[in-house]
Amino acid sequence: FIPLSRVYLGVHFPTDLLGGYILGAVLLLLYLWLEPGAEMWLRGRGRAWQLGAAVAVPALLMLLFPTEDGVTTGATLMGMAAGFVLERSWVGFEAGGAWWRRLLRFLLGAAVLVGLYVGLRVAFSGAEPALLFRFLRYGLVGLWGALGAPWAFGRLRLAETRR
User: Fold this and answer.
1) Please, which residues have CB within 8 angstroms of residue 62's CB and are 6 or more apart in sequence?
2) At what angle do helices 130-143 and 68-90 cross, to 10 degrees?
3) In Å, how far are 22, 27, 87, 109, 114 from 56, measured between CA atoms?
4) CB contact at 8 A, 47 and 85
5) Residue 113 burial by CB count (10 A; 0-12/13-18/19+): exposed, middle or buried?
6) CB 93 within 8 A of CB 153
7) Left, alpha or beta for 46 (phi > 0: left; psi -120 to 50: alpha)?
8) What distance lies between CA 111 and its chain's CA centroid?
9) E strand or H helix at 114
10) Crossing angle of helices 68-90/47-64, nearest 10°?
11) pLDDT tens digits, the chain, 163 residues: what are they?
């Protein structure tokens, strides 16, 4: 409904919506086609190579888009990508479990995420260089979501882990 509201508000034309839907569908189909092979290729590489890619790709994006939004996106992606690589080998998080455990994981994970986001925003307020501290903040937020939370859930026995 959000895209329709953009037309209603006069921000976009209906053809913009159609173009967005088509572009989104093409990107989704491209992902579905490429992802299995890319995953197998990446799994065939060592952890060091995977971590290198987890750092290099977002770093390239941040170099191409050295703005607040570019750093926000790149740092979050870098933290998450590195976290996923490390989580797979260090934690082995299993997402299943009783509904109440999943609810507790959500509440705890969201609380820490908000705490990191707000706490680091306050701690780094006015600190220079601003983009560096923005990078640290969003990188840690991404790392928490991909590695810190699964590790904490395993330690608190809110989730099963393979490690």
Assistant:
1) 70, 71, 74, 75, 135
2) 30
3) 30, 22, 19, 27, 27
4) yes
5) middle
6) yes
7) beta
8) 17
9) helix 99-123
10) 170
11) 788 898 889 999 999 999 999 999 999 999 999 999 999 998 899 999 999 999 999 999 999 999 999 999 999 999 999 999 999 999 999 999 999 999 999 999 999 999 999 999 999 999 899 999 999 999 999 999 999 999 999 999 999 998 7
| CA distance linking residue 2 with residue 130, whole number of Å | 32
- The rounded distance, in Å, linking the Cα atoms of 17 and 9 is 13
The C-alpha atoms of residue 125 and residue 30 are separated, in whole angstroms, by 40
Hunting for tokens 């690589």 — which residue is that? 85
For 2, list phi and psi in degrees, rounded to 5. Answer: -60, -45
The identity of residue 147, as a single letter, is: L
Q: Is the Cβ–Cβ distance between 79 and 148 less than 8 Å? A: no
